[in-house]
Design a protein that fits this description.
By secondary structure, the protein is mostly helical. The radius of gyration is 20 Å and the shape is globular. About 65% of the residues lie in helices and about 0% in strands. It folds into 2 domains: about 90 residues, no CATH class; about 170 residues, no CATH class.
Length: about 270
């Protein structure tokens, strides 16, 4: 029974944080406070009752409609809450050679903070092609704070990784603008990569960006072949960077490099 308490607590807390993530993803791009007023229906303005605001369950009990005006509530709200719960649970899967080099006892707790920062960035980038600088900045600072727990050498590595990631992607964006007439990457992507460097270090952010580039290229190619993405049409790259950061956090850079080398052997 005791062995189930931690996963249960992580799942429930992750779902509650996912509920707040929905608020952040909706209000932050509209320059609204994320704490005041409380949750309310955007159509009729009625406050959402506490029992209707239970993650996932509240949406199911209401059959996906506002209790007061019966306006449909998007399925995305419970989906984000469930996804957040699963991501918090996945923090327990961090490997011994992963977790950005942090002490093993600290890795799961740092991981839930990292994923709580990444998820709203992904949602906002999908909706608005924008990665809020304050979230990226705070994510970088918090990552360096966790890194300092492992000593000065790790902190220095993560600080250098964050700086190089920022400068490299800003340089690529400027080069793309010079060659193509438009930036190859948004500056928010560079700031998200810097956040990743602060959590993963040099080998980690290199592996994370490799994952991001490969997955982004595959998805982008499929979208263009199916007509969902037009030539030179911008599409969000932030979700792929975030995916790379989280996958490398869980498995470690060495594991990912080994997988790629194994593929090339065939």
């Amino acid at each position: 029974m005791q062995g189930l308490m931690l996963p249960l607590w992580l799942g429930l807390t992750g779902a509650c944080v996912g509920s707040f993530t929905n608020v952040v993803a909706w209000r932050l791009p509209r320059d609204e406070s994320v704490v005041h007023p409380g949750s309310h229906c955007p159509r009729c303005g009625h406050a959402i009752r506490w029992h209707d605001n239970l993650p996932v369950l509240g949406w199911l009990f209401l059959a996906g409609r506002c209790r007061d005006c019966r306006t449909p509530i998007s399925w995305r709200y419970p989906a984000v809450e469930a996804l957040s719960a699963l991501l918090w649970l996945s923090s327990l899967l961090v490997g011994p050679a992963a977790g950005g080099g942090l002490p093993i006892w600290l890795q799961p707790w740092a991981g839930v903070v990292l994923v709580a920062l990444l998820l709203p960035l992904v949602l906002i980038d999908l909706d608005h092609l924008w990665l809020p600088e304050p979230l990226c900045r705070w994510g970088l600072v918090i990552g360096l704070m966790f890194s300092s727990a492992a000593g000065v050498p790790l902190l220095a590595d993560h600080l250098i990784a964050a700086s190089l990631a920022l400068l490299s992607l800003e340089g690529l964006s400027a080069l793309g603008e010079r060659l193509l007439g438009q930036p190859a990457l948004g500056l928010g992507d560079a700031k998200l990569a810097a956040l990743g460097g602060a959590w993963l270090g040099l080998p980690g952010i290199a592996a994370a960006m490799a994952v991001a580039v490969i997955t982004g290229a595959v998805i982008g190619s499929i979208a263009r072949l199916t007509g969902r993405l037009q030539a030179r049409q911008a599409f969000p790259f932030g979700p792929f960077i975030a995916l790379g950061i989280w996958l490398v956090w869980l498995a470690g850079p060495i594991w990912w490099w080994d997988q790629w080398l194994a593929m090339f052997r065939f």
